[in-house]
């Protein structure tokens, strides 16, 4: 390399560096263009729809400005108080948080079994788990409705907690067992040698190292429960038990033309998910790298 | 690390043989009660005439429902649309997701923020996707109105009410939500490629395309196979967006098979016929999965 440049620019030390820098900088410009240009387009495509919703939510009624100014909270007051989003919000939080806790505990137990034991029926169990992924959720509605009816759980938020948890369980289990498999078994074995029981060794050695996995699995459970629409709209008919997505679907019909209220409802629906997602998305890529996909 | 790959069987002793069953118990119980049993009952109902609105005709009909399906024009039409929807949607999402992943895999300032932003639609609910895109598509205050102000389209243009444009309007909305899924899965795999491979390729004077074909693609191929399969199944079964955005319309032109199932079961209360339709959908998905994995020579090393 050094030889090249001396041949090209043999005269003075100042012009010695110049052509080389120019050639590299042209490469760099093309390189940067190939990165920034499509990235800019992708960002625009992603963010403009979000902005459009914020615009409608914060813009005064009747305004057609493309900047929401003066900012108004009228739309939020309307959906929160009049349309009942205050209640729906609490219901959604209750469903999503309970589903998160239940999913995480069950996935920890089952994931540990899948990661650390060979046992008869393991293959069959995994096969059933895989098959569940092919079931159209729409068709589970009828039998699930009958089951919840039998259990007296129709119009109860628990019907949503149970169905969300169960539908999400295969993914939670596979993800969690991937995370557990990534904790070297030698660490546990060392703890056993030191006289720890299996449970104690799990609590003291494995659990602290599993924190990213627990965050990831829990957050996915939270997001999927928070977002669930089909079960919520079919199992719940009492308005005081509505969740946010159901409330949103009624806004879609009810306020056919009140787009400000609809947008405000959308913002209320999206904020918790975006907050959770912003925190968890690092673990998302990390967790899948951990081998969960290749299983 | 290599030693930890097969630790379990070595560790097992007689006294701990029952551990895994206790641990897997809660998951298995939930799955059996709320997934396996309902699926079994769907199989059972598919052989019955079972319509809540006409209880006196209910009873065992054998394969009657399936024979009816074979002659049902609405079924064939919804199946055709489902295939169109899945192929277009998964194809576009994959291409955009791959490009996105390759971009974000590079080092640049503000990468963390950009990644979080472009991935964010993945976390958004189907019903929220509808909400957002309805705000964009509606003819009175949406994009169309502003484009009309500029004289580009006539006023009152509604993408969702034309049977040709409704499809592409739905495709665009779902692409917005779905492309990040591919980006996330592919990016996870890209980050496990050793940088030394690229460095030695640089030394050999390999170009951008050459490096992609020889290093990147072989490495991410299996993740791509799994991701496209998962997404195809997911888009096949996806009801939320089309149900709320187009309602299957206009005139049934965007009714997928699961949407037809939902309408049969919930609107018409025809549980028997709806169940039979589900079995057909289920079988199609299983066959597709097996063929797709075989065609991609997947899972050979496990067999």
Mean pLDDT of chain A: 81
* Secondary-structure element order of chain A, N to C: HHHHHHHHHHHHH
CATH class category of chain B:
Mainly Alpha
Q: Output the strand order for the largest sheet of chain B.
A: 1-2
End-to-end CA span of chain A: 45 Å
Main sheet record of chain B: 2 strands, antiparallel
CATH superfamily of chain B: MetI-like
Poorly predicted segments of chain A: 1-17, 291-295
Secondary-structure map:
The complex is a heterodimer of chains A (295) and B (303).
Chain A: H1 2-8, H2 13-58, H3 74-82, H4 85-116, H5 122-132, H6 137-150, H7 157-181, H8 185-193, H9 198-209, H10 211-227, H11 230-235, H12 244-254, H13 259-292
Chain B: H1 8-11, H2 19-46, E1 48-49, E2 59-60, H3 64-70, H4 73-104, H5 111-119, H6 126-137, H7 143-149, H8 163-190, H9 195-203, H10 208-237, H11 240-245, H12 257-267, H13 271-295
Antiparallel strand pairs in B: 1-2
Helix pairs in contact in B: 2-13, 4-8, 4-10, 6-8, 8-10, 10-13, 12-13
Brief sketch in words of this structure:
The complex is a heterodimer of chains A (295) and B (303). Chain A has 295 residues and is mainly α.
């Amino acid at each position: 390399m050094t030889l090249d440049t001396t041949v090209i620019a043999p005269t003075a030390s100042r012009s010695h560096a110049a052509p080389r820098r120019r050639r590299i900088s042209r490469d760099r410009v093309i390189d940067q263009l190939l990165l920034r240009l499509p990235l800019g387009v992708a960002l625009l495509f992603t963010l403009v729809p979000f902005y459009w919703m914020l615009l409608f939510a914060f813009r005064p009624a009747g305004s057609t400005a493309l900047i929401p100014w003066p900012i108004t909270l009228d739309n939020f007051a309307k959906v929160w108080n009049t349309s009942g989003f205050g209640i729906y919000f609490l219901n959604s939080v209750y469903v999503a948080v309970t589903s998160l806790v239940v999913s995480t505990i069950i996935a920890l137990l089952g994931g540990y079994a899948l990661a650390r034991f060979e046992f008869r029926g393991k293959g069959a169990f995994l096969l059933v788990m895989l098959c569940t992924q092919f079931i159209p959720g729409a068709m589970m509605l009828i039998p699930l409705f009958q089951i919840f009816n039998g259990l007296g759980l129709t119009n109860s938020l628990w019907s949503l907690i149970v169905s969300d948890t169960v539908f999400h369980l295969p993914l939670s289990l596979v993800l969690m067992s991937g995370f557990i498999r990534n904790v070297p078994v030698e660490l546990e074995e060392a703890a056993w040698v030191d006289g720890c029981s299996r449970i104690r060794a799990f609590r003291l050695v494995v659990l602290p190292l599993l924190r990213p996995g627990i965050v990831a699995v829990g957050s996915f459970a939270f997001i999927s429960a928070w977002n669930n629409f089909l079960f919520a709209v079919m199992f719940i008919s009492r308005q005081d038990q509505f969740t946010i997505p159901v409330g949103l679907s009624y806004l879609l019909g009810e306020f056919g033309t009140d787009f400000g209220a609809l947008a405000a409802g959308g913002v209320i629906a999206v904020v918790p998910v975006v907050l959770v997602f912003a925190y968890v998305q690092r673990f998302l890529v990390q967790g899948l790298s951990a081998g969960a996909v290749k299983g | 690390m290599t030693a930890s790959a097969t630790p379990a069987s070595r560790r097992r002793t007689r006294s701990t043989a029952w551990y895994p069953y206790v641990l897997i118990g809660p998951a298995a119980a939930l799955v059996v009660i709320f997934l396996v049993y309902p699926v079994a009952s769907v199989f059972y109902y598919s052989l019955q005439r079972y319509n809540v609105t006409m209880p006196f005709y209910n009873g065992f009909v054998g394969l009657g429902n399936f024979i009816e399906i074979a002659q049902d024009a609405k079924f064939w039409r919804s199946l055709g649309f489902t295939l169109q929807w899945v192929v277009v949607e998964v194809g576009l999402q994959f291409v955009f997701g791959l490009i996105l992943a390759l971009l974000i895999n590079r080092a640049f300032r503000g990468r963390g923020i950009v990644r979080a932003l472009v991935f964010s639609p993945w976390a958004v609910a189907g019903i929220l996707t509808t909400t957002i895109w309805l705000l964009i598509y509606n003819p009175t205050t949406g994009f169309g109105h502003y484009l009309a102000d500029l004289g580009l389209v006539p006023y009152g243009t509604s993408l969702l009410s034309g049977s040709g444009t409704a499809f592409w309007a739905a495709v665009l909305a779902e692409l917005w939500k779905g492309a990040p899924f591919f980006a996330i899965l592919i990016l996870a795999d890209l980050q496990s490629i050793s940088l030394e491979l690229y460095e030695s390729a640089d030394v050999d004077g390999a170009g951008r395309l050459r490096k992609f074909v020889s290093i990147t693609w072989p490495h991410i191929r299996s993740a791509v196979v799994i991701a496209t399969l998962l997404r195809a199944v997911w888009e096949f079964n996806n009801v939320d967006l089309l149900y709320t955005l187009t309602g299957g319309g206009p005139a049934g032109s965007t009714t997928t098979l699961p949407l037809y199932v939902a309408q049969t079961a919930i609107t018409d209360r025809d549980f028997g016929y709806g169940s039979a339709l589900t079995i057909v959908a289920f079988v199609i998905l299983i066959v597709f999965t097996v063929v797709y994995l075989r065609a991609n020579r997947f899972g050979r090393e496990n067999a």
